[in-house]
Amino acid sequence: MQSLLSRPVVVYDGDCPFCRKQVKRLKARDPGEYFEYCPRQQDGLVARFPKLAAGDFNSGMRLVHLDGEVSVGADAIYHIARRLRTYKYFAWLYRVPVAKQIARAAYAWIAAHRMKLGA
């Protein structure tokens, strides 16, 4: 199946100040615009990516891959980090089982408290 995407898409909570700040940081480290960035509130987003309809967006950001598959939360961060020069040397840590569990737990805590963190 041929991909309809020209680049992976980072989907984030556009109503969350903390999330917007982190996306701004990602964009600054993505000078080649490897990723497209879309707030989850964007009109037509679920029509464009039907797999997003099944998710609880409070559990974290999404990364829609070129093949249409979706990574969530810390898993999405891992895939993003692999592509950005600033972070790619740390991405290998996510492949260590204990580190992956810690990253997922930390991400879940941040996602649950993101509105307070951005204030």
Describe the structure.
The chain is of the alpha+beta class and 119 residues long. It has one domain. It is built from 5 helices and 4 strands; from the N terminus they run βαβαββααα. It has a 4-stranded mixed β-sheet with strand order 2-1-3-4. Strand 3 and strand 4 form a beta hairpin. Helix 3 packs across helix 4. The mean pLDDT is 89.
Helix-strand blueprint:
Layout: E1 9-12, H1 17-28, E2 36-39, H2 45-48, E3 62-64, E4 70-72, H3 74-83, H4 85-91, H5 97-117
Parallel strand pairs: 1-2
Antiparallel strand pairs: 1-3, 3-4
Brief characterization of the structure:
The protein is 45% helix and 12% strand. By secondary structure, the chain is α+β, with helices and mostly antiparallel strands. It is globular.
Please describe the structure with a list of short key phrases separated by commas or semicolons.
alpha+beta; 45% helix; 119 residues; single chain; four-stranded mixed β-sheet; 4 strands
How many strands, which pairing sense, and closed or not: the largest β-sheet? 4 strands, mixed
Q: How large is the share of residues in beta strands? A: 5-15%
Q: Identify the quaternary structure here.
A: single chain
Provide the structure class. alpha+beta
Q: Can you tell me the number of structural domains?
A: 1
Number of helices: 5
- Total beta strands: 4
- Mean pLDDT equals 89
Q: Output the helix-strand order.
A: EHEHEEHHH
Rounded to the nearest angstrom, the radius of gyration is 14 Å
Instruction: Identify the overall geometry.
Output: globular
Residue runs with pLDDT of under 50 for 5 or more positions: none
